[in-house]
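Hi, here's the filled form for the chain we discussed.

Project: internal
Contact: R.S.
Residues: 118
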Amino acid sequence: MENFAVYEKVQERISVHNYSSRPVEDKLRLELETYIEGMGSGPFGTRPRFKLLDLEPLDKKELRSLGTYGFIRSARLYLQENKPYNRFLGKIRIQNIDMGIAMCHFALVAEEQNLPGW
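And the returned structure, exactly as it came back:
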């Protein structure tokens, strides 16, 4: 019975991420795009597929229909990934921190460092 209670709690939980509504500077965005493009190949010679998506022009109703994990508020850029390349995603996350751009996976570090975007 205890496992069922845990299962119910997991089903009820939500995740809320609030980001600064400030846009990411063009210089930082270009630097991140250049970093992503230069990541090289995976272990079998295939290139990872990542793309920065600027969803700022979309209507708020359209954004709600995306089905992101929990609720993400005020995020301007999203990183689209191809799941088999999670090891590359980790490198991109670290690069974001080095550039001063916060991602939700580094929320505590971002808050401690007063990084923009969180």
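Let me know if anything looks off before we file it.
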